Task: structure prediction
Amino acid sequence: MDGSGACKMPRRQYTASGDERRVGVEIEISGLKYHKLVALAADLLAGKAREVSRFVSTIDAPVGEFVVELDSEPVKDLDLRDERLPESVRELGGHAMDLIDAAAEMIVPLEIISPPMPLSELEQIEVLCNRLREAGAVGSREAILYAFGLQLNPELPDLEPDTLVRYLRAFAALYDWLKSRHQLDLSRKFTTYIEPWHSDYVDVLIAEDYEPDMVTLMEDYLRDNPTRNRALDLLPLFSHLNDDLLRQHVQDPRIKARPTLHYRLPDCDIDNPRWHFSTVWNDWVVLEQLADNAADLQELTMLFRDSRKLSFGNLTRSWKDHCHRWLESKGYV
Result:
């Protein structure tokens, strides 16, 4: 998984309205103290840090506003001055808070959340990850408690149903291949928030005659996947497209509307010198290129559909390996 050191670009770099496509990035790490991470990120991003609340800071950078936070609502919201707490606890004051903070920084990930960044600016994330590694940041492999991820929120080139179907089919066919490359750590394999789509839904999606309108597409997905806990989470996008329909199936207040896919599969293996942000991103670009090539997507979808049929050949053959050989033969990797 050697990184190329450069973020490749998909063929479709602009939206239907002519604007450069954007992508948000979420990076979970440990190994650095919160205030050190804020200062380091502000320096690397040429931005100005501002403390918003306990364990939440923003960085006003030229490319937009980044957020650095401890990824735990209970710890961020804790207030030992709260009169609802027993007096004996409140009297501990700062000493107790220091102990809680020290413990939290050891086991709760720190998260850097980028603004929606133009594709042409993604090299900044590559540089940021490399410098964080040099400063001592660690990722999922450091301890069994850690299940840190690197999440991408790529804006779609347009919001037409057929475009979305192409992206979803590409992801379904590439899931095993992507997982083998970027979801390696044992701690994350035991979690539920990066599950594949329900098998029944995949069968509907890859059916040869599947040409849904947007309402049908959403209802088909939500019937079998009414949860955020998917390796490619569509709920933020569906909230953007039709929030009323989404809320008929899912009532989770954490869902935030945005015109993006939410790719949650990859580990953050930041302390591994062979791991690079660009490696994760460039494999996503493979999916982008496949979705943009109708003939290749149709061929791989057909092969994937056949691989799911019960046969002796399929029982003795790995779809992941078959998929990789196909991608090599077509020049995608």
Notes: The chain has two domains: 19-137, 157-333. The radius of gyration is 21 Å. Residues 157-333 form one domain. Residues 72-82, 88-93 have pLDDT under 50 and may be disordered.
